[in-house]
Please model this.
Amino acid sequence: MTEFFADRLLLFGATGDLARRKLLPSLCALDADGLLPEKLQIIGTARSALDDREYRNMARAALEEFLPAERRGSMAQFLNRLTYQQLDASTLDGFDDLAAKVAAAGPQDDDGGLAIFLSTAPSLFGPTIAGLQHAGLTGDKVRMCLEKPLGTDLESSAQINDAVAAAFPEDRIFRIDHYLGKETVQNLLALRFANILFEPIWNAHIIEHVQITVAETVGLEGRVGFYDDAGALRDMVQNHMLQLLALVAMEPPTSFDATAVRDEKVKVLRALRPALASETVTGQYRAGAVDGAAVPGYDEELAEHGHDPSDTETFTAIKAHVDNWRWRGVPFYLRTGKRLPERVTEILVQFRSVPHSIFEGSGAPSGTGLNANQLLIGIQPEEDITLSLMAKVPGLDEGGVRLREVPLQIAMPDAFAEKQRRIAYERLLLDLIKGDQTLFVRRDEVEAQWQWIDAIRKEWEAHNVTPKTYTAGTWGPSAAIALTERDGVTWHE
Model:
C-alpha cells in the first residue's frame, strides 16, 4: 500500500448540491481549523462553463449560505485554494485539459499525491474512470473516493466496482457512507470497546432486541427521478442502516485499523438471515400534515413533476436476524421512511428484564414494577446517549418500595462543549486526504449489503408485495406496528 498525504483534491460534480451544501463547507471549516495540508490545492470540475474566478464566487456564496460565520476562518485563504476546469465526463475530449489543470496545481511535494472525489451519476462512473486512465490520472499516488449510489442492485454495483478496480487497487478506493462520519456513530465504537461494562452484556443472553430508526420529515425535495427509481429500501437500508446494524453487532476488532474494523463488519453482513416477505412492511405516504403544515402525498408530488404514479416504497420496516452465536434469537427491527412525524436517527438497545424481582409483593402500589433497561443512542438531530435505570422514589413508603425509571443521559455537545460540532463530511474528507480507510466501506461490505437487499426485493416480487398507504405525519402503515407488537415489542417514539 502506497501511503501519502494528498496535496491536490479533485472534486467531480463541483457545482452540484452536495458540493455546495457539504463538501465546500466541510473543506473550508477544516481549513479554518488548520487541519488541511498547507499546500493542498482543490480543483473543481463539472459541466458548467466557469473560470476560476466565477467558481470561487459560486463557492463563496455556498459558504455564506451553508457554513456558520464563526466556522469560515479566512475565507479568502480557502478560496485561493480553489481552481476550476469545465468537463463533460461522458466523453474523453476534456480529460487532457483536466490533467493539465491538475498538473498546474502540483505536485507541491515529492511525498504528495492526488485524491479524487467522484460525485456524479452512476452512469458516468465508467466513462469517468476511462477518461482518468486516458489522461494519466490513475497512477500510484492517486486515490479514488466514490459517493453513493453505487448501483441499484448487486449486478450494477459489481459493474461499477469492476470499472473502478480496473484503474485502482482496493487500498486506494474510498467508498463513502456519510453516516460513518457522524460523531455519535463513531462514538458507538468507543461506547462498546472502550468501556468494559458493555462488552460482557452485549449478546443474546442480556439483550432482547435492537431497534434502528432513520426517520425523515421531508418528501422528495427535488430528488424525484432518483428516489422513484430507488425507494426507501435501496436509498436508506442498503447503506446507512446496514452500516449501523454492523457497528452494533460486530465482534471486537483486534485494533482500530481499517482492515480489522471492516473485517468484523462484513462478517455481520454475511450472517444476516434472508428476510421473509412476512418480516417486512412497505408503505407510501399520502397527503397529511408534518409539523403543523399540510403536505402533498407521494402520488401528488410525482404528478407535479410529470411522473406517473408508482409502487415505489417511501417507508419500510424489517425484522432482521444476525445468525451467529452472539446474536442468535435477537431481532433487529429496522424502520425508515419519508414524511414521518419527526426527523430522527437513533439506535435503541433493549435489555432483558431482571430474572427475578425482589420488590414484587412488597405492598407497593400497582404500576411501580420494574422496567427493563434501555440504551438509546441518538445520532440526529441530537447526538446523545441515554441509559435508563430503575431507582427508588425518595420518601418513606409504608406500602412498599416505589420504583421509577430514571434516565442517565450524556448529551455529546454538552459533554464536549469546547469542541466544534462538525459536518460528517469533514471527518471523511480529512481521512481521504490522509489515506485512512477505517470509516469507508469496502467492496465486500457493499456486495454483502446488496445481496441481502436483492433477496428482499425478490421476496416482494414473488409475493406481489405493494406499499400500504400511510398519512404523512404518522409513523407509517399500521402493519409496521403489528410487525413488532406480535413479538410483544413497541417501537420507540
Observations:
- The two ends are 46 Å apart (CA to CA).
- The chain has two domains: 5-175, 181-485.
- Confidence is low (pLDDT under 50) at residues 363-368.
